[in-house]
Amino acid sequence: MKLNRLFLGAALAAIGVLGAGCNLTGGIDSSKSRDERILDAQAKMDTGDCGGAISILNSLGDQDDRSLQMLGTAYLCNAGATVKKVDAALGSYDSSSNNLTVIGTLANRLVPTTNDADSGIVSAINAFNRMSASNNKSVWQIYGNIVRIANLMAKASADSATVHRSDIGLTACLAASCGTAPAACSGARMGDGDATNALTALQAAAAAAGNTSLGSIATLANNLNTLLGGSASQNATRCVLFNNALSN
Predict the structure, then answer these.
(1) How far is CA 36 from CA 108, 178, 194, in A?
(2) Taken in order 130, 228, 96, 171, is the CA torsion positive or negative?
(3) What is the rounded distance in angstroms from the CA atom of residue 46 to the CA atom of residue 40?
(4) Which residues of the chain have pLDDT under 50?
(5) For the chain, which residues make up each domain, given as ranges?
(6) Which pLDDT score, from 0 to 100, does residue 30 have?
(7) Could you point out which of 64, 99, 114, 162 has its C-alpha 20 to 30 Å from the C-alpha of 190?
(8) How is residue 119 annotated by DSSP?
């Protein structure tokens, strides 16, 4: 079962139908209603002004699930991980074949990236975490954390163009049993700090997936976590990404 463009559809459904009255060029207009300002924020994202969208959404004061979901996607957009870009990569995941290389595909779409982008993705995850408990919240938590894993892989790219296995770990990672022999997979360009952050994101995605019926995205998160084999370490994380998220 494929993801079938789950995330783009979910995002558009939450945002609602766009209409007239969007302030495309001005700043924050506090005289507008909450719904009008949310539409303005979407218009900002549609024109690539993701930072402007963040400013509008943060000006709303009390947040609800709708605005938090939008705020999370705006932070991701500002970090280069637009909904369309992420959907184009993860949308090809098929749980029957378990093609985890979709994460590597996303990583390559995010190259080049920066520490600031990672901070923005963390802000997105924090926004999703503030949503009220629901399947929708869980889906976006998985989404944000998988994006973070891919971005941390992108950050390791040596040529700032493509992510290779050699960027993630040493050749001893190849075919290593990630749960029992992670020490063989020490760091290359993905340092211990980023490996720890990737592990945290991986575990958070799996925790959000749990045993719920969230479809292929939950399967993706759980299958990735299972490959750790109970070894929650930096080397085990590099091993999993080296052997499963990338093909060369």
Answers:
(1) 36, 50, 39
(2) positive
(3) 10
(4) 1, 4-5, 7-26
(5) 6-245
(6) 64
(7) 99
(8) H
Return the pLDDT at 196: 96
pLDDT value at residue 97: 86
Q: What is the predicted pLDDT for the residue at 28?
A: 57
Phi, psi of 51, deg, nearest 5: -65, -40
3-state secondary structure of 183: helix
- Which pair of tokens denotes residue 22? 């969007």
Distance CA 39, CA 140 (A): 20
Question: What is the spatial distance between Cα 52 and Cα 54, in angstroms, rounded to a whole number?
Answer: 5
pLDDT tens-digit map of 55-73 = 999 999 889 999 999 999 9
Encode pLDDT of 192-215 as tens digits. 999 999 999 999 999 999 876 788
- pLDDT at site 142: 96
CA 205 → CA 49, 54, 186, 198, 217, distances in Å?
28, 24, 23, 10, 9
Q: Which residues pair with 187 in a beta bridge?
A: 169
> How far is it, in rounded angstroms, from Cα 119 to Cα 79?
8
DSSP-derived secondary structure letter, 169 = B
Tokens in use for 239? 């091993």
CB 239 within 8 A of CB 182: yes
> Any idea what DSSP says for residue 132?
P
Q: Which helix (H) or strand (E) holds 86?
A: helix 83-90
pLDDT at residue 101, as a whole number: 96
